[in-house]
Design goal:
Strand content: under 5%
Largest sheet: none
Order of helices and strands: HHHHHH
Length: 93
């Protein structure tokens, strides 16, 4: 399973604390479906949306790594338990 990039996760956490980004990011995350996050193109699309929303450039290698990690997690955005588990996982890294 791929590992998350600590630099990107640090930026993600800081930007999530910004009220101007928080609502937009939550909207992007809530708009995803299980089918989107089970395919590579769906994961890459979400990563690109988050990158654009937060103003953080992501290289192709970083996007590939994040997509592999996300697909390996098997998270269902429609399931409240999965959302809570993913939130806890993100804050640990």
């Amino acid at each position: 399973m791929a590992q998350l990039d600590p630099r990107l996760m640090g930026i993600f956490r800081r930007r999530m604390c910004d009220p101007r980004c928080f609502g937009k990011v939550c909207g992007i995350l809530r708009a995803q479906r299980l089918e989107d996050l089970n395919c590579h193109s769906g994961c890459c699309s979400m990563i690109d949306q988050l990158s654009e929303c937060m103003g953080v450039p992501v290289t192709a290698a970083e996007r590939q790594n994040a997509a592999e990690w996300l697909m390996g997690c098997g998270v269902d955005p429609g399931n409240p338990y999965h959302r809570r588990s993913m939130r806890n996982l993100l804050w640990r890294y």
